[in-house]
Structure formats: structure tokens, C-alpha cells
Amino acid sequence: MAYIAPSTISTGDLITAAKWNADVSANPIAIYAGAMSVASQAIGDILYASSTTQFARVAAVAAGQVLASAGTGTVPAYSATPALTSVDMGGTTVYGSRAITVDTGGALNVVLASAAGDDFTVDTDKLVVSGDSGAVGIGTAAPDALLDVNGAVQIRTASDSGVKLTTAVGDARSATVTFYKSRGSYASPTDVVNGDSTFLVQGYAFATSNFSGAMIQGAVDGTFTTNQRPPSRLEFHTNTANGAVTERMRIDDTGYVGIGTTAPDKPLVVSGSDAGIAEFNSTAAVGTNIKWSQSGTQSFVVGAYSTITGSGTDFTPTLFAETGLGINFATGGAVTKRMVITSDGRGLSQFTAKAWINFNGTSTVAIRDSHNISSVTDNGTGDYSINFSNDLANANYAAVGNNSSAEANGSSLMPSLLAVGDVRVNSRNGSGTLMDGSKLQILVFGD
Fold first, then answer.
1. Could you tell me how many helices (H) and strands (E) the chain has, helices first?
2. Are 37 and 53 in contact (CB under 8 A)?
């Protein structure tokens, strides 16, 4: 573009259209006492002062680059990765949105140097990304882990999704959730004391407002020496409708379990106000059983079939029930029955009477009291058959009689015939003559 000398215009003269076109439109840039070192230009070029009296041109470049100052007295230059120390996006109309927008398919990549202190920081400590470790701090300017949050954390979800921890390593380790507790401050911690909570996991339920509910809590469980591991316990808490959250079970520092008590003094202590304090159910054909064992050599088992068994070097007792047979007491490795309490209350063993009776044998026979006796048959003077309610296993039993009738001194009652269903006895006076006695007793032992 050739330079056109401007027209001479005196002060107060009117500028005509012709003069305007010649002086302004034809000469877009007019420099007083200076010169242009721009031989040509293109759309997008930027002119800059190359000296106090001359202008030069910075050529346009590809989209997305930023024109950055190189300092006083230095030509500015475009850069695809400008080094900016700060960007002021104040609350003016132009920057009111305060937004950094990335086009679809693009990426915003903030590159930090790797030296300590080369951090990405938002308002001192609201958000910090450490350049040397990559750790992210929220509420702290010095994160101690890959994510360090100083304050409460809330995760919102509209489904059953939540926090998921995944570990993929070539050994037995897994993802962990770890709680740390101290007194003092984070920068200057001090020892915990007995009763301090070390962690707490609790659920809340909304009913017009949020109410605390079931929780699991760990706590310090006793005194300790500083610089040694404190004792700990684990507590389980629940609540009834509109009731306070209450401890229901704990495992104390010794491993003792207390249900309904906070001070178990045995490996398992169950305490409550109900008469039925515990119930065990099983779908197995033989029912539920509970076994107590001492080092695997002594054991004691209680089963749902009313079975109680024991084994060991000193004894092997067994208590069990059979349909229609009552409760059985047995011992020995072969579980030999020693005594049976039948459903009608009879006790059957070598040490208990299979049957006994006290009766009046005069006139019409009258039974005063008896066990396993159905009736007495009067066979004649001084001759009676004592009939059993339940037959004995065999006739090899022992029967002992007594005649304490006052009407005959030296009287006796002797068995004369043993059968599985009855025993026949004779009552005699002191001279051996058969007589009806008023106070006759028989006692039977056997199988």
C-alpha cells in the first residue's frame, strides 16, 4: 500500500468526504515522526512497537495459542503451552461465569512440575494437588495420602451403589478401612485413655428427621502403658422403636463375649430377663446339638433329641431320649444304658426299684401306695399275686417282702413264684401258717 500525503487543513476547516477518504481510509495507520517496518500483513496479524519510533508485526498462528509477554523490551510471542503464574477471573461482567470450558472430545490437562511445592492450589487449602507425590488434599495444604480430607465427607447416591474398595495383588492382602484415634491434635497427638472410642460405624434412618440406629463401635478397654498397644473391645448396639441405641453384645479385650452384659467373666456370658434365654434350631434329621470339649479329649454334648453325651478318660456319660421310652442315662464307649426315666415317671436301672407296693391284704385287698403295680390278686388266705403295670424284661429279678402286721408277731411275706408280669407272695405268721396281713410290702429289683 503506497503512502498518500495528507491534505493540509487549517484549524476550523471542515473535513470533506473526499479529504476523509484520502487521509483516513486510504491511510489506516498514520504515524507521526515514525516509520513502518511492515512490508506486508495478513488478517489476524498483530502490530507492536518495535522501537520508540517504529512498528513491527507478529504474524497470526494456529488457533488455540496464546500471545504471552516475554518481558519488558522483548518481542511478545505466541505459545501453545504458555507459562502462566496466575489467571484473574474476577467477578466482572465479562468473566462473571468464572468457567473453564473444554470442547467435546477435548481434554483439560494441568501439567505440574515434579519438585516439592510444585502444587495446584485452590484458595490455599480448599483443594491442593501435590506436584511431587500426586496426592490430593481437601481442606489441607499438606496431604499425607493420595487423598487426604480434613473435614466431613458425604457420598450421595440414588441407588444401592456406594464405596467400593478393590485390591488386586499376588498375595493374601485385601483392601482395608483404617481408623486412627488420639487425643491432643493432629499435629501433636497424645495418648488415648480407657473408654475412648477408636472407631464407630452407624446407620441413620429418616422418619421426618434423621435418627441414629444400629452401630458397631471399637473402644479402648482398660488401662495400659504408654508406647504399648492399648487393650480394645468391640461393641454392637441396636435400638427398639423410639428407644435409645443400646449396647447388646460386646467382645472384650480378653476375647470374652457378653450378650446382655457389659462385663462378661467367662468366654460366653448370656444375660437377660426372659425365661427362655437362648434357643438353637437345626433342620438336620438328628436335630441340633451343642458340644463342649476340653483339648479334644473330654467332651460333653447336648442335642435336640434330648441327647446329652460326654466322653473322656474319666467318664463317658450319655443322656438321650427315645420315642415312647423316656429319658435314658448311659455310660461307656458303647453307650450302655444305666438308667431310664420313662414317660410315666418310672426310673429304670440296676439301682432303682422296678416295682414296689404297700397294701392291706385283709378282707378286700387295698393298695396304699405303689410303683409299677396295676393290681393285687387275692388267691386265698395269705396268698397274693402282685401284678406289674409294665412287665419286667425277664424273671431273673429279686423280690423282697416284709410283713409288719401287728396282729401276728414274727410274721413274714416271702416271694413264692417270679414271672415277668407278676410276683406271687405268701404271708405267714410266726408259726409259718398262711395268714392275711394288714401291712404288707414288696420291693422288686431287676431288668
1. 1, 32
2. no
Percent of the chain with pLDDT over 70: 75
Integer Cα distance of 367 and 361 in angstroms: 9
List 215's β-bridge partners, or say none.
202, 237
Report DSSP state, residue 362.
S
For the stretch 159-187, pLDDT in tens is 887 888 899 999 999 999 999 999 999 99
Which residue matches cell numbers 401306695? 369
Please give the Cα distance from 67 to 45 (Å, whole number): 12
Which of 339, 323, 342 has its CA nearest to residue 331?
339
Q: Are 341 and 330 in contact (CB under 8 A)?
A: no
Residues whose CB falls within 8 Å of the CB of residue 269, separated by 6 or more in sequence, listed in order: 256, 257, 258, 259, 261
> How many Å apart are CA 387 and CA 378, to the nearest integer?
11
Estimate to the nearest angstrom the gap between the alpha carbon of 23 and the chain centroid: 89
- Rounded CA separation 22/152 (Å): 72
User: HSE-up of 63 (CA within 13 Å, CB side)?
Assistant: 0
